[in-house]
Amino acid sequence: MNEYRYDNQTVQGFILSAIFWGVVGIVIGLLISIQLWAPAANLAPWLSYGRLRPVHTNGLAFGLGVGAIFGLFYYIVMRLCRRPLVFPRLARLHLWLFNAIIAAAAVSLLAGKSQSLEYAELEWPLDVAIVVIWVMFAVNVFATVIRRREEQMYVSLWYVLATVVAVAILYIVNNAAVPAGLWKSYHAYAGVNSANVQWWYGHNAVGFVFTTPILAMFYYFLPKTTGLPIYSHRLSIVSFWSLIFAYLWTGAHHLVYSPLPDWIQTLAIVFTLFLIAPSWGSVVNGYYTVGADWSKMRTNYLTKFFVMGITFYGLQTVQGPTQALRVVSQLIHFTDWVPGHVHMGTMGWVTMTICASIYYVIPRIHGTEIYSEKIANVHFWLVLVGQLLFSITMWITGIQQGALWKVQNADGSLKYSFMDGLVKNYPYWHTRTLAGIVFAVGMLLFVYNVLKTIQQGKALRASPPSPAPAAA
Amino acid sequence: MSEIPDTAEAMENKETAHRLPLGWLVLYFGLIAWGAAYLWLYTPALGGWSQAGAYDQAAPAQPSR
Amino acid sequence: MAGEIYRKPVSFALMAAVTVLVGSIVTMAYPMFRAEMHEKLENLRAFTPLELAGRDVYQREGCVGCHTQTVRPLRSEVLRYGDYSKAGEFYFDRPFLWGSKRTGPDLAREGGKRPDAWHARHYADPQAVTPRSNMPRYAFLAQARLDPSEARTHYRVLASLSPKGQWTATDADFAALSEKTELDALIAYTQWLGHAVQRKQAAGGVELALANPLGDSPQAVARGAKVFEENCAVCHGAEGHGETQIAPNLMDDTFLGVKGDMPDGAYFGLITGGSDAKAALGRPGLPDGGMTAFGGQLANDDIWAVISWIRAQQAHERQEAPAREQTEHLPGGQH
Question: Cβ–Cβ of B63/C295 closer than 8 Å?
Answer without folding.
Answer: yes
